[in-house]
Amino acid sequence: MNTANNNTRSNANNATVLIADDDEDIRLALDLLLSANGFKVIEASDAKQVVLQTQRQKPDLVLLDMNFSRDTTSGQEGLDILKQLQQSNIPVILMTAWGSIELAVKGLQQGACDFIEKPWNKAKLLNSISQQLSHNRLKQEHQGYRQLLSSKPQSKLQNKNWIAESAAMQAIEQLVMQIAPTDANVLILGENGTGKSLLAERIHQLSSREDNPFIAVNMAAIPDNLFESELFGHQKGAFTDAKQHRVGRFQLAEQGSLFLDEIGSLPLNLQPKLLRVLETGHYEILGSSQTEHANVRLISATNANLNQLLKDGEFRQDLLYRLNTLVITMPPLRERLADMQPLSENFLQHFGQKYQKSSLTLSSGALKKLQQHSWPGNIRELSHVIERAVLLATTTEIGIQQLLLDTTDIESTGVTLQPLEQAEQQLIEKAMQVTNGQVIEAAKILDISRNALYRRLEKFNIHYE
Ligand SMILES: Nc1ncnc2c1ncn2[C@@H]1O[C@H](COP(=O)(O)OP(=O)(O)OP(=O)(O)O)[C@@H](O)[C@H]1O
């Protein structure tokens, strides 16, 4: 038996097909063909029976003749039944007389999924039935997933406080408020643990798609040979290991947002496929020849240097242009020191609850220590440090000792030995830069008074408002 027939058999899987035709000989011929290929067959010889059989036996597919009464050729009868079948969500394949393309097109426009000309080609007919059955199965599975997703009690973001008090984060907030309601693709850049994933979800929550799914995919965690199936889904039997149907992430995110994290990990040979969906909205489920249409907003993120990947020929320029309609660069934690206290207090409260230690506070020494650390792992690292401190706490105040931060930070911040006054000037310039020139906030970071900072700004001739 050839592969097409094997696929038909595996897709038949006891599927029930209703043959709706007034010609007894045609019903018999089709019955023989379909039964021999593993389908359960029921029959209807007039319009009334079609509706009745559909309600009672709930077939998985209907093969519908367009002209029930032998002497009519208008096809109106078939179109009328088609309309009634639409409500039941059962796929319908039309059977039309040879040469009646116009009628077939009308049927397709009104919701039929395919058409077959009489006299039929056996392999073609079996193939079409098999494809429509698996497509419908995928559709149902997909609806099931979406119901599951929409019944999620709370999103990740609703459980978390979004902290953005520093000047750098305030600027990002302003941008997010502007771009979230649009459908534009967004690329989020930034070091590990800076909050790229949380920001992606925030953009989704602030968009008109908020009631639809937010689907996140970590591209770095997918083996190369499974990318296509992960993104676009596959049909049973599409490749050796495809034992079950799989709904792709594009389909799951339909009407919602798709977040592709670590986009730099997308293999070069698959980049044209993603580019095609972004350009045309079209893609195919693996193993199916039917073209699907995606309606998703794409948010992607990476900590990789995409420009370097471009230079090295590992990332396509045209794909980057599609992804980076809008770019947001998350600042590292060491450049948003005004967020250190609220972030730490947020984690203190969270882990205090988790480990049943209430009313925990940070000593001023501990806060200063946190502000001096270089945080290569950014907010994720801060959350781990605070979790450990909560576990180690013996009183309600967390001190420097519980933070267990070593003193090697200076090396990792890349500070070089230089005249003290020069270092002072550099620190002040940096503080003014990360606070967007806000003197009060910069003074807080440097832990000096506002007047002391003004004096130094004058001394070093640094511009301020
Ligand atoms: N603005 C914020 N307010 C509160 N918590 C935050 C904020 N940003 C990030 N976090 C927390 O920091 C941790 C890391 O965030 P997230 O996973 O979004 O970072 P990421 O940049 O996507 O990391 P990676 O690059 O490793 O994928 C999470 O626990 C997240 O809840």
UniProtKB/TrEMBL annotation:
KW Lipoprotein (keyword) present: no
PTM sites of type 4-aspartylphosphate: D65
Span of domain Response regulatory: 16-133
InterPro entries assigned to the protein according to its UniProt record, in alphabetical order: AAA+_ATPase, AAA_lid_NorR, CheY-like_superfamily, Homeodomain-like_sf, HTH_Fis, P-loop_NTPase, Sig_transdc_resp-reg_receiver, Sigma_54_int
Assigned keywords, A-Z: ATP-binding, Nucleotide-binding, Phosphoprotein, Transcription, Transcription regulation
Gene3D superfamilies: 1.10.8.60, 3.40.50.2300, Homeodomain-like (1.10.10.60), P-loop containing nucleotide triphosphate hydrolases (3.40.50.300)
TM helices/strands, residue ranges: none
Organism of provenance: Thalassotalea fonticola
Domain Sigma-54 factor interaction: 162-391
Listed name of the protein: Sigma-54 dependent transcriptional regulator
Keyword ATP-binding listed: yes
Cited PANTHER family: TRANSCRIPTIONAL REGULATORY PROTEIN (PTHR32071)
Pfam families: AAA_lid_14, HTH_8, Response_reg, Sigma54_activat
